[in-house]
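Q: My labmate handed me this sequence with no annotations at all. I'd like to see what the chain might look like in three dimensions before we decide whether it's worth expressing. Could you predict it?
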Amino acid sequence: VQLVESGGGSVQAGGPLRLSCVASGYTYRRHCMGWFRQAPGKEREGVAVGYNGGGSTNYAASVKGRFTISRDTSKSTLYLQMNSLKPEDTGMYYCAAGLRLPCGLDFRGYHYWGQGTQVTVSS
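A: Here is what I predict for the chain of 123 residues:
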């Protein structure tokens, strides 16, 4: 499985960004897929995850109500719509896939990772 993220950039606080992650190779329907982020000097944290076959999603408390994870299976693409961005959302954002169920926010449950895309939010 190969995951390629795009869509990062610099934005002012309050603005939106949409991240995309294109999956290639074998993507098992029973995979969990999601978005994680890592700020300098901090541990990687889960942002939003969901079951690749559809169903419930799981969000970090800090982004709930502002971020939305979605997928377009016809394009093998996972999205993260980020609204009302805050400076504390700054970091490298990674797309990941894994087989550990249920789909949790712990990065250790994910085996496949993209290279990351940088998001910088200025105040």
